[in-house]
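## Example record

The block below lists the input lines for one assembly entry, exactly as stored, with component labels intact.
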Amino acid sequence: MGLTPADIQALLEQFEASSWQEMTIDIGEDHLHVSRRANGSAPAPASVAAATPVPATGPTPAVEPALVDRNGEASAGTSVAARGVAVEAPSVGLFWRSPAPGAPPFVEVGSHVEPDDTLAIIEVMKLMSPLKAGRSGVVTAILVRNGATVARGEPLVLIDSGP
Amino acid sequence: MSVAASGGLRRVLVANRGEIAVRILRACYDEGLETVVAVSDADRQSLAAQLADRAVVIGPASPADSYLDVDRILAAATLTGCDAVHPGYGFLSERPELPAACEKAGLVFVGPSADAMRSVGDKGSARALARKLDIPVGAGTDVVTTEGEAAESAAHLGFPVLLKAAAGGGGRGMRRVDSPDGLSAAWAAAASEADAAFGDGRLFIERYVRRARHVEVQVLADRHGHVAHLGERDCTLQRRYQKLVEEAPARDVPSEMRAAMHAAAVRLIGAIDYAGAATCEFLVDADRNTFAFLEVNARLQVEHPVTEMLTGVDIVREQLRVAAGAPLSFHQRDVRLSGHAVEVRVNAESPGDGFLPRPGRLTAWAAPVGSAVRVETACYPGWEIPPHYDSLLAKIIVLGADRAAALNRMDHALGHLVVAGVPTTAPFARSLLAHPDVRAGRTHTTWVEDVFLPGWESSDVQ
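Predicted structure tokens for the full assembly:
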């Protein structure tokens, strides 16, 4: 018995809700590694790798998965990211998941969104701009933590619009 | 005699950042005072950190955990042996918690007492005080607590109305509402913006005056019973309630009205136990030739150098003198308002892109120079402008024999500003000041949006 896509999604939600920087899980032959960091301290898309292939049926994943084998080394293997199309940061700024401190987030992993729905707020020099979904679908990953500084063009949220 | 020489103060903590931190450091230097600047993680490389005698990191980049945290500011001041705290503008400068905490810790707050700040800082109580003193006040409400109450008040006042943050300033938490349909969304947006900016989401409502001009009077008061004004500033050229250009004196305001506003400001500040710098804001109704009191800013104002250029009075040094218990260095009869001063705010924004703020690395920076040109800035070549704070890069202030001469000098100065790495509003400001309506003074607070921008956006000058 391996990890199912639903398992991975549940694990990602747990990870997202936590204050952890990285998470590694081994179940049987399956290996899951999630990190909020790329190489270094700059906030970067969480990378997901699982030994159980999950066919990417939607648009090509915008985020390259980090490929990690059983020894923890990068390799070309049968790994995939949470699928979906990335909504990118329109400019450098701060990524806020809620309309106000303490308020519930705009979306969670699993939320269904319409094109005009707000996913987050991007704050640049005290100017708050809503980050719109731009497409309908299901949020499959939120790639940066609340309050992180993001770069222009950085993938922030994955939305799977289905086949 | 300097403040240091008088023995009143020795070391000042500058609890702010950017150009105003640099400005305060200079005034401290002039008064012979030692300086410590409190910086966030994002400001370790700031010009203020380099210029101060000492810099202390008080927390992460997020203002809530650094510049807006009273405990961290107090800890920085006491641990570095400061005896005074200068709050600058914005951040904690209008929050009574800071002077209250300073008093408790035995530190001198460079500004009014917590009580004085409360009595004028809350716009509702300031309006009540003005009414009591027979100063004209615009039609509006006191603090409104629910959306239902807001709808009722707005209908009573008549649309359009303006929602404003009770604790506010700088255009944050302000929304114009043209009809009942727009009230709900504007109410939510203004309240949350006010809460985010000031930690206080309370709002009040004013009747919106079309073709209004924004005129404010600079006041200084000491603890020896002196209250003096330094004339007025005209801050009519705004975009979305953000001031773009300030000048002094106000153009085309009848001299009786100017005198009445000066007197009203002095009367208002004199009516409370106030020490330090204050600005009384008025709305001038150009159509009816009347003025109405808006609010008091119980702090140093961004555009204070306009008044300094015109009068020769150093407002920040006066603040330090007053904080040290010394009298103002001048009397009202000494104040001369001659010539014309203009200030332009240069922001790291892309005007062609809806004025989108654009942080980034300054790859080149050279400010204009000249005998009647003053530049207030924290910029230097190579500085990485952080995305966490406002977009103000520099204030350029010029003095001329008259308004036309000042505007010409400003055009020249802006033309000699060298910036690379981020877009700025300087070219936009040049176009703005060249417009015949600006030259003739035929503007009001929404003129930039209503008249100037539509034409400018379709031109290729940008």
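Residues 39-80 of chain A have pLDDT under 50 and may be disordered. DSSP finds one helix and eleven strands in chain A.
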